[in-house]
Amino acid sequence: xxxxxxxxxxxxxxxxxxxxxxxxxxxxxxxxxxxxxxxxxxxxxxxxxxxxxxxxxxxxxxxxxxxxxxxxxxxxxxxxxxxxxxxxxxxxxxxxxxxxxxxxxxxxxxxxxxxxxxxxxx
Length: 122
What we know:
Layout: H1 2-32, E1 39-47, E2 51-57, E3 62-68, E4 73-81, E5 84-85, E6 96-100, E7 105-110, E8 113-121
Antiparallel strand pairs: 1-2, 1-8, 2-3, 3-4, 4-5, 6-7, 7-8
């Protein structure tokens, strides 16, 4: 019985240590990650309304989207899933980009308003 208890405790210790090692490896991978799309992109959106876009992609694939019209400007933060914009984040107005940075084109929506967008990397 005592041997079984020692074996069980040893086994649990090994599993716990492996879990910690796995977490450290994952954290190191995240720190070393560099998005292939990192940089600044500029362009425009057209359709029911028109304006300019600035998209800043960080090393970690976090994205700041800034859209401007002649009278206003707003920004929101999102992220990339591979090359595509994560569609769970929208600007306060409801403005959202759909598409990806491979083609640097896509569509946008803001309530009932819709259109297309395109970017170039600076």
